[in-house]
């Protein structure tokens, strides 16, 4: 599975592409940071991010997209820029028919280092080791994007396959997976009697 992961930001947007499946060695495809000048108007900066992201999608043709979930922060302008970039990436992925998964920073840290409280240095060290890199990816935005990609391969990828399996069952049978009957409210009569039930 090829994952394109984005650590969204308006000034610096980390992007990483990783190949892998759960339980096997991961491979770095490319990592980088999209930068926009802080002095430029926001619309111009968003277009610049979109143009760069379009190249990443075209160059690597990912199978899924992972984005770090926006969380509340005291710096409103930072949160706004992060949310705007997140929206751009989500729209692009949706138009390409690619599944998008949001992961929280805590989920990413736990998946990569085993602790949701790991600091950036610990996460970067684990990313370097897990991908077999000669040196740590820099800046931090690049390392964060790769950590997000690893998290998605190990966690989100598995969930995506489960969701797809459920969808396939529904498409084939028109019933809920596993033959689970629909819930009938207490006191209501089922439209179809249970197997072996005697008619009243």
UniProtKB/TrEMBL annotation:
Its main location: cytoplasm. It holds the Pfam family RuvC. SUPFAM superfamilies: Ribonuclease H-like (SSF53098). It is found in: Cytoplasm. Binds 2 Mg(2+) ion per subunit. Its EC number is 3.1.21.10. One of its GO terms (cellular component) is cytoplasm. Residues 173-200 are annotated as: Disordered. The active site is at 7, 68, 141. Its cofactor is Mg(2+). InterPro entries: RNaseH-like_sf, RNaseH_sf, X-over_junc_endoDNase_Mg_BS, X-over_junc_endoDNase_RuvC. One of its GO terms (molecular function) is crossover junction DNA endonuclease activity. Keywords: Cytoplasm, DNA damage, DNA recombination, DNA repair, DNA-binding, Endonuclease, Hydrolase, Magnesium, Metal-binding, Nuclease. Gene3D superfamilies: Ribonuclease H-like superfamily/Ribonuclease H. Transmembrane segments: none annotated. One of its GO terms (biological process) is DNA repair. Mg(2+) 1 binds at residues 7, 141. The RuvA-RuvB-RuvC complex processes Holliday junction (HJ) DNA during genetic recombination and DNA repair. Endonuclease that resolves HJ intermediates. Cleaves cruciform DNA by making single-stranded nicks across the HJ at symmetrical positions within the homologous arms, yielding a 5'-phosphate and a 3'-hydroxyl group; requires a central core of homology in the junction. The consensus cleavage sequence is 5'-(A/T)TT(C/G)-3'. Cleavage occurs on the 3'-side of the TT dinucleotide at the point of strand exchange. Belongs to the RuvC family. This is Crossover junction endodeoxyribonuclease RuvC. The lineage of its organism: Bacteria, Bacillati, Actinomycetota, Actinomycetes, Micrococcales. The gene is ruvC.
């Amino acid at each position: 599975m090829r994952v394109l992961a984005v650590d969204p930001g308006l000034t610096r947007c980390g992007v990483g592409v990783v190949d892998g499946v759960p339980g096997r060695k991961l491979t770095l495809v490319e990592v980088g940071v999209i930068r926009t000048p802080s002095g430029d108007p926001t619309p111009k900066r968003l277009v610049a991010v979109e143009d760069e992201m379009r190249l990443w999608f075209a160059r690597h043709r990912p199978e899924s997209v992972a984005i770090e979930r926006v969380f509340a922060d005291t710096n409103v302008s930072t949160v706004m820029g992060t949310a705007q970039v997140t929206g751009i990436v989500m729209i692009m992925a949706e138009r390409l028919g690619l599944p998008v998964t949001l992961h929280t920073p805590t989920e990413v840290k736990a998946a990569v280092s085993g602790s949701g409280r790991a600091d950036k240095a610990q996460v970067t060290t684990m990313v370097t080791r897990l991908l077999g890199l000669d040196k740590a990816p820099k800046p931090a935005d690049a390392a964060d994007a790769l950590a997000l990609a690893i998290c998605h391969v190990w966690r989100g990828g598995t969930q995506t396959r489960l969701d797809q399996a459920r969808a396939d069952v529904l498409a084939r049978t028109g019933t809920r997976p596993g033959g689970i009957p629909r819930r009938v409210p207490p006191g209501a009569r089922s439209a179809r009697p249970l197997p072996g039930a005697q008619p009243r």
